[in-house]
Amino acid sequence: MREAKKKGYAYVVLDGTLIPIDRVAADRPFYSGKHKKHGMNLQVIASPDGGILWVSGPLPGSVHDKKAEWIWGVLADKSYQGAAHAKVPYKGKNKPESQKDANRAHAKLRAPGERANAQLKNWHILRKLRCCPWRADQLAKAIHALEIHAA
To answer: pTM for this one?
Structure first.
């Protein structure tokens, strides 16, 4: 967050991503019901231009994104509903046009967060981990470092 403030970003984008892992049904904590597969949950903070600023430590795939609400002042998707400091879109059906417009604007601002996760998953090694799942963050942080130095 300090780096984002130094660079003068008005906001940052938080998004979670599931890194698939090679596990069996006995490893229930790693199973994500949302994605219907075993994995590690990583939280990524992206700049407004889609650059990766920070990658969290790994959590088992069964952990909900809302557990990341300790990060303050970020734009987040609907899975962070109720987080103390995250700005999330309006929920529900039959919303008034003003809320629909606000959600569209919110989605446009959040798109770089999706791009940051796509940058990570573009690396073949993160498509399905076959190593210790607790190393997911080390791999993601190494990829982040490589992308910083390549730019």
So the answer is: 0.71
Q: What kind and span of H or E run contains 143?
A: helix 136-150
User: Which residue in 56, 55, 63, 64 sits closest to 30, CA to CA?
Assistant: 63
Largest CA distance in the chain: 48
Measuring CA to CA, how many Å separate 111 from each of 31, 108, 126, 129, 151? 26, 5, 21, 26, 21
Instruction: For residue range 38-70, list pLDDT tens digits in order.
Output: 888 888 888 888 888 888 878 877 777 666 454
How far is 68 from 145, CA to CA, in rounded Å?
A: 22
Distances from the Cα of 109 to the Cαs of 32, 45, 50, in angstroms? 27, 13, 10
Residue type, 145: A
Give the H or E element holding residue 135: none
The residue with tokens 């080390």 is 138
